[in-house]
Design brief:
elongated, alpha+beta, seven-stranded antiparallel beta sheet, 2 helices
Length: 127
């Protein structure tokens, strides 16, 4: 029972009003984070995936095969399409699926349906 502290009425009122601190928790920055741990690596990877997905859906320009493209969302709530960027903005393909790291689309070339798949992890976004 040597760790028991008896506080009088005045000390209790000071603690309740925030005038007196009962411990030193405000100076504790917490446990150090192991940046090389598997959890931190997973969290960093998830943050990267969320970042590139948000950039794509926001319509940021990206470079693919030395050409600039951007995603244009549909006004009616659909998935939209990908178009080229430049003097002549033109349609490139329709988007059929937007996942965490993949975007799938399709276009028709000479009457034949061609599937398009983009890996968001490898796209280079232009600032």
């Amino acid at each position: 029972m040597k760790n028991v502290v008896v506080l009088d009425k005045k000390a209790l009122l000071e603690i309740a009003n925030g005038e007196k601190k009962i411990d030193n928790r405000t100076n504790n920055t917490g446990r150090p984070v192991n940046k090389q741990s598997a959890r931190q690596a997973r969290l960093a990877k998830q943050a990267f995936y969320n970042d590139v997905n948000a950039k794509f859906q926001k319509g940021n320009q990206f470079r693919y095969n030395n050409a600039l493209y951007k995603y244009v969302a549909d006004e009616n709530g659909g998935l939209g399409h990908i178009s080229t960027v430049g003097i002549l903005e033109s349609y490139a393909c329709n988007v059929s699926y937007i996942g965490r790291t993949k975007v799938k689309g399709f276009t028709y070339i000479m009457g034949k349906k061609m599937n398009v798949e983009l890996d968001l992890k490898t796209l280079v976004f232009v600032e």
